[in-house]
Amino acid sequence: MSLPLLRASEHLHEVRYEIRGALARRAEQLEREGHEIVKLNIGNPGAFGFRMPESMRVAIVQNLHQADPYSHQKGIFPAREAVVMQQQNRGIMDVTADDVFIGNGVSELIMLAMRALLNPGDEVLVPSPDYPLWTASVVIHGARAVHYPCRPERGFLPDPAEVERLVTPRTRALVVINPNNPTGAVYPRRVLEQLADLAAQRHLVLCSDEIYDEMLYDDAEFVPLAGLARRGLCLTFAGLSKVWRACGLRVGWLVCSGEREHARDYLQAVELLASLRLCSNVPGQYAVQTALGGHQSIFDLTRPGGRLHATREALLGAVRRSRWLSVVPPQGAMYAFVRVHADRLPGGGHAFDDQRFALDLLERKHVLVAPGSSFNVSYRDHFRVTLLPDAEAMADVLGRVESLLDEYAAA
Could you tell me the pTM of the whole model? Predict the structure, then answer.
């Protein structure tokens, strides 16, 4: 007698995370068959030879003797206080250690923040393209992600007036990802001011994903949204994974700023959820104080002569020489959101599909990228690559992309 089907929870029916989906599973299968795959689908610095600063390793090792017990549900005090000092250095003076939650990466904290906020039928304004965890964190709790467009022709910047038109009585929060994943856009102060004003006027929780805050190129300027959001509640998310190249530590933080008295019930709910998971990884928390107070080595990587800067230049050069590609130059983060001009292909490119293209690129050229439609956009002519390989490897990858598109044109 066969067992009845064990079905997944209905909460997951509309949840997608294709960055680690079917294409990634096919890449693993090809690797088992002996093929060498260039994996550009995930921003995972350690997989490309990047290492966290040595001082962070030392801080963890020297404090292992006191890392056996659970910590406070919000995290160890030195880590939270270091985050407070960073915020104050940025002009955000109204936070204390009690306003900081340390989590198992920003991903966990996003889930906690949304779980404490949302009821079925609520709405959250999420950028399109977005980092898909944000959409998933809304949908998984029975709410609706309403995507506001950040169009390529605007340099992937949102139009605040367009965002405001999407607000309804069910809208609870506005999500901003700056510097942006997947596009590398860095939002100017004026746009951020308008978004902060919109959130205050419509009584929305402002959620600012700033995990790439110091990863900037050329003359780009990062403006912390909390410094502009004095009216209403602002939640700022950041951590060690990207700027400090320490993804495996799983250490992120959530900072609550702005007006908080009216949000006491909500913030107590966040703490309840933090308590239910007891605490986040304790050894990794001991790296926070050293990271935030030490030499910011990310600048050595992003300025001219640095590895990330060189890889970005290699990508931009290859795209300029391409018959088929264009890109809005990323100003921050570690990604480029590249467009395929399918209209230049025979037949006008009407049959072009980013998912099919990504699969062909994997099968024929052994390169794994993330199709643009994975990031909740309506168009299907983009793909995302990470800037983590060195410049020579990036040039090689773009050469393989060009070769595949040449093959499409010759077919």
Answer: 0.95
